[in-house]
Write a sequence for this structure.
C-alpha cells in the first residue's frame, strides 16, 4: 500500500448536504489538495471551484473522516471530507 508522501496531492471525495447539495446539484464532488493542509485551505479550494456556495461555506462545518474540524486544524491525512451547513428542525 502506497502512503502519500509529504505534500503529495491527493484526490478526495467531498460529501455535500442540505442546501449546499441543492446549490451544487450533486451530493458528492471530488477535489485535489496537497497534504498536509488545513480545513481553511479546503474551504478555499471549494470556494474557488464552486463560488455559488461561498455564503454556505462561511457558516458550514467541515468534517474530515467523520470528525468535525476547525479552520486552523492541520490535516495530515484524509479519506473523505463533508460540508455540513446549519440545519433547523421542527
Amino acid at each position: 500500500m502506497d502512503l502519500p508522501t509529504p505534500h503529495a496531492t491527493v484526490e478526495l471525495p467531498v460529501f455535500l448536504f442540505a442546501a449546499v447539495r441543492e446549490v451544487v446539484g450533486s451530493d458528492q464532488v471530488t477535489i485535489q489538495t496537497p497534504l498536509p493542509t488545513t480545513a481553511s485551505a479546503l474551504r478555499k479550494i471549494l470556494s474557488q471551484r464552486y463560488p455559488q456556495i461561498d455564503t454556505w461555506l462561511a457558516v458550514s462545518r467541515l468534517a474530515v473522516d467523520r470528525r468535525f474540524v476547525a479552520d486552523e486544524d492541520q490535516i495530515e491525512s484524509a479519506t473523505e471530507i463533508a460540508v455540513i451547513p446549519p440545519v433547523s428542525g421542527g
Remarks:
- The radius of gyration is 13 Å.
- The chain is about 25% helix and 35% strand.
